[in-house]
Amino acid sequence: MSQNNQDTALDLGNELIEKPKTPRQMAFERFMQNKLAVLGTVVLVLIVLMAVFAPLLTEYDPTKSDLMLVEQGPSSDHILGTDGSGRDNFSRLLYGARISLIVGFSAMLFTLVFGILTGAVSGYYGGKIDALIMRAADLVYALPFFVLALTIISIVEEVTIGIFVTVIAFTTWPNLARIIRGTFLSLREQEFIMSAKAIGAGDLRTIFRHFLPNAIGPIVVNATLMMATMIIIESGMSFIGMGIPQPTPTWGNMISEAQNIRILRGHPEAWLPPGLLILLTVLSINFIGDGLRDAFDPKSDQQ
Predict the structure, then answer these.
(1) Percentage of residues of the chain with pLDDT beyond 90
(2) Which candidate, 231, 207, 246, 237, places its Cα nearest to that of 284?
(3) Cα dihedral value 29, 288, 97, 89, nearest 10
(4) What's the pLDDT score for residue 41?
(5) Strand locations in 35-138, DSSP E?
(6) Which terminal residue of the chain has fewer beta carbons within 10 Å of its beta carbon, N or C?
(7) How far apart are the C-alpha atoms of 281 and 274, rounded to whole Å?
(8) What is the pTM of this model?
(9) DSSP characters for 118-176?
(10) Average pLDDT, the chain
(11) CB neighbours (10 Å) of residue 95?
């Protein structure tokens, strides 16, 4: 057989032998097959870009009042009108996206770190340590969330974004800790974990090299859904006046400002856009979470 024929045969053989897909590639393909998850990703990216490029989309300061423009309707200068303090609603909508997303992401990240640490320690060591951490989680669970959160916030003299995020994380970590603990308990008796211990792997190495990589699916899915919950919590607490204080713009603050019956009836442009953005953001994140759950599920049979 000539050299050219041999090269052709080798090329054909290489094409016929498909390179096996990695778990990440398979998860990505399953995620992309979920149309709602892809749509949610696109919408969320657009909202994030809107928040990032807010200074380019509006020239108005979202915290600057103008008493000559109180509760003005939509116009060429103020496309969504102004609020009760004469601030531009459109600029507050854009900059409010920043605060709402930052609070949602930061609270999720804080809760994620604390929940993973407590859940991992509880599930890995078990015994008295497990009992102590779970009783602490039960104690937080026993207190109604809003009562506990509002009590802590009412004690603080000035509510900042950092304090607000800390309060939310402190009152929501038990759920994730229980999920991580359950995952660790199910993995603890697996052969690869016992093998790692048999060859003398330390606790930190076993947790970070063997436990956590195998728990990445539940962690990512719950982190995504948790962010949507955090945004709702921020909006709800700002609506009742116990969230981020004025004049800092958030979607919850904008809706809270529109509680006046005159604004509700006569100025829907003041409260409808932030309400729709909260709805779109939460739906998008939930769709992404559902897509990630299906993507990381090895039993998924999406076609």
Answers:
(1) 10
(2) 231
(3) 110
(4) 92
(5) none
(6) C
(7) 10
(8) 0.78
(9) HHHHHHHH-HHHHHHHHHHHHHHHHS-HHHHHHHHHHHSSS--HHHHHHHHHHHHHHHH
(10) 79
(11) 23
Taking the C-alpha atoms of residue 202 and residue 208, their distance in angstroms, rounded to an integer, is 10
Region of residue 56 (phi > 0: left; psi between -120 and 50: alpha; otherwise: beta)? alpha
Q: How far apart are CA 59 and CA 78, in angstroms?
A: 10
Cα–Cα nearest to 292, from 228, 210, 218: 218
Peptide bond into 247 cis (omega under 30): yes
Distance CA(40)–CA(45), nearest Å, equals: 8
CA 54, CA 48: separation in Å to the nearest integer?
Answer: 10
What secondary structure letter does DSSP report for 209? I
What amino acid is encoded at 173 in this protein?
W
Low-confidence ranges of the chain (pLDDT < 70): 1-24, 196-197, 201, 260-266, 297-303
Residue 19: what pLDDT?
60
Q: Are 108 and 172 in contact (CB under 8 A)?
A: no
CA-based max dimension of the chain: 91
CA atoms within 13 A on the CB side of 77: 8
pLDDT tens digits along 42-66:
999 999 999 999 999 888 888 888 7
d(C-alpha 92, C-alpha 60), whole Å = 9
What CA–CA distance (Å, rounded) separates 55 from 46?
Answer: 15
**In CATH, what is the architecture of 31-57+87-296?**
Orthogonal Bundle (1.10)
Q: What is the pLDDT of residue 39?
A: 93
Q: Provide the residue ranges of all domains of the chain, joining segments of one domain with +.
A: 31-57+87-296
Contacts of 89 (CB under 8 A, 6+ apart): 78, 80, 81, 82, 83, 254, 269, 270, 273
